[in-house]
Amino acid sequence: MSPTTTGQPDVPEGYGVGRDGHLLDWSTVEARLVESLHYWMSTVRSDGRPHVVPRWGVWLDEQFWYDGSPETRHAINLRSNPACALHLESGSDVAILEGVSLPSDPVSGELGERLSAEYIGKYAEHGYSPGPASWSDEIAGGLRIFTPRTAVAWSSFPTDLTRFSFD
Fold first, then answer.
1. Can you say whether residue 156 is alpha, beta or left, with left for phi > 0 and alpha for psi between -120 and 50 degrees?
2. Which of 72, 84, 147, 160 has its CA 20 to 30 A from that of 55?
3. CA distance readout (Å), 77 to 24, 41, 97, 155
4. Residue 104 DSSP one-character state
5. What's the CATH number where 134 sits?
6. Which residues contact 110 (CB under 8 A, 6 or more apart)?
7. What is the total count of domains within the chain?
């Protein structure tokens, strides 16, 4: 799911965003999402208070796949409101995505192998090496999928401030 539209976001006057800039390619932003070890996810509690949590996960097939107990605060929040935001750690190479996070169907076979290989490549040295069958039933791993709806990114603000929309 590549972006369907790309452009500059509307920002208040005074931020220096103008016609002199250039837009980022989605492939540049997606490479950051693939390479990152740490992501931050923001959800909303049922009483409206925000909740932010660091996540490990993998960007695969244009979605963010991550796992954990369905009883964590962010997973509980997502049950009543699947809308959330995902962003990378950097304040200079920025990628902020808004979308939805939903539980995955059980995963096995080729997709399980791909997910396992990506996780092991990123997190084995940190002690996490899930196997291809780690997500093969509805309880194991609490696998979730974040699908972006919009993204804002830059690496040289405001020159390359870019907004991406996904349909």
1. beta
2. 160
3. 32, 12, 18, 31
4. P
5. 2.30.110.10
6. none
7. 1
Question: How much is the pLDDT for 19?
Answer: 59
User: Looking up tokens 């995505």, which residue turns up?
Assistant: 97
Name the nearest CA neighbour of 107 among 116, 117, 119, 99: 116
Residues in a beta bridge with 7:
163
Per-residue confidence (pLDDT) for residue 93, from 0 to 100: 94
Domain span at residue 59?
Answer: 5-165
The per-residue pLDDT for 18 is: 65
Can you read off the two tokens belonging to residue 26?
A: 């989605």
Q: Please list the rounded mean pLDDT of every run of 10 residues in the chain (167 residues).
A: 81 69 91 97 97 98 95 96 96 96 94 97 97 80 93 91 92
pTM: 0.93
Return the residue matching tokens 């049950």: 79
Identify the bridge partners of residue 133 per DSSP, sorted by sequence position. Answer: none
